[in-house]
Amino acid sequence: MAESPVVSPRQPLLDEATGEGKPGQGLVGIGIEIGAGGGDRLEARPPEQGLSPPHVEGTGHQQHPPARAAQPFPGQPRLVAGGGPPHLQLPLPFWTGSDVAGEVTELGPGVAGWRLGERVAVNPNLTCGECEYCLQGDDSLCVNFGILGEHVPGGLADYVKVRAGSLIRLPDHVSFEDAAAFILVNMTAWRMLVTQARLRAAEDVLILGVGGGVASAAVQIAKLCGARVWVTSSSDQKLERAKAIGADELINYSREDWPKVVWERTGRRGVDVVLDSVGAQTWKGSLRCLARGGRLVTCGATSGPIGETDIRLVFWKQIRIIGSTMANRREVREVMAQLFRGALRSVVDRVFPLREAAQAQALLAEGKQFGKLVLIP
Ligand SMILES: [Zn+2]
After folding, report:
1. 221 CA distance to ligand 1 centroid (A)?
2. Does this model's pTM top 0.90?
3. 24 assigned to some structural domain
């Protein structure tokens, strides 16, 4: 790929005279330096394969480096130190942040088509651009796939350096908060429902655990598709929030046996699509409440990776089990267009200054939020 440097957290933007990180200029999100060409490419690969810990001394990060290591970006709570998945052995200090919006503050050599001060968001996919999947446009199948803020330190910072090809130009009427809160969960939910599950108008879709970022994004996307939307949560308050953004059928799984409720309320037909990112806890129930020819689409397994599958259900009801991760460039463009035209909205729970990221994380750990927490440097 011609544009080479991607996120380069080891080289935070420095004021050359003082060695200090440049001030945030009151921006929402973060400043963005764009690179092209040059040799400081940071591969999207797991840290154990050679990514050295980010260097924070002598930069603007110095004010809060100790806390930063344990601060996940909202929407990425699985990266909480001590609570993350075992396969992610991150070098500390590490900062997350997959969703980024801000102004372009610097251009790398050879970057064309972008101006300083432009308002942008960032596609968090880190892809090689060279493998067979990248070449056919299936970015999220890239054999070197990574995510900004997960495989390399991310946007929970004053500045981040990204590849020019990852930028998304923002219209003036879209705030940085809304753009940042929107990207990852909506691109994920869009691919799941629109591309993978091929959700159609008049179908029924069940979205599990609606307090989660992808799930709440999926509610709006499913409505946009014209589907009837079923949601589950253990919180009546979250169910009401889901109703406010379009959910039709609410099930509190702490009081009700949700697969049974779905089965009965659909006249023993089941739903056409289940969106399950919960995993082990819900897998069996998800299969049970699918209609004939139904599709189970999954993007995660927060409660555990091993689920029980009754194979008879799969062949007899001709169920399809479909995996999904992030989205390709076309899907990102499509879903961002829905934000820009107001057909989809960001779900923002609260906005914090970046220095209060630890409080934001504590709130995430409690699981009481509905939608995104946004941090502003
Ligand atoms: Zn690739």
Report:
1. 27
2. no
3. no
